[in-house]
Amino acid sequence: MNGRVMNMRQLISLVTLGVDDLARSRRFYVDGFGWKPVFEAPHIVFYQMNGLVFSTWLRTALDEETKRSSPVKSAGFTLAHSVESRGQVQPILDHLAKFGGRILRPASEPPHGGMRGLVADPDEHAWEIAWNPAWPIDAQGRVRFGT
Fold it and tell me: Residue 140, CB half-sphere, CA atoms under 13 Å: how many?
């Protein structure tokens, strides 16, 4: 590339989470969040989102696919699901808990404003359920960073 930096689009096309039990994970995402799979195979489930694809992949198969020398578990990230109103946060946390989630932090107001709470999926992936009045959600469900 002659020392020049490649100009790549600022884009995430797929997020994949490794899971220990695909059926248990599917119950959380399908019955809890209400998401509909677009493709399912014995080791993976894909969900079409608003602008990207989300998948859950049986961890042993994912480790084999990524050629990891040893299984890796990471809690170094949090995913987020934005909602349209502050009053939706705690009911969604409670609903997800009925389908295998574990509430990590009940709904509360963070110092920067809004409302948020955290829930872990059955494989301990953290999800923030959040309402931020400065981050509008458009008709297609896309969130825009605001101040």
Answer: 7
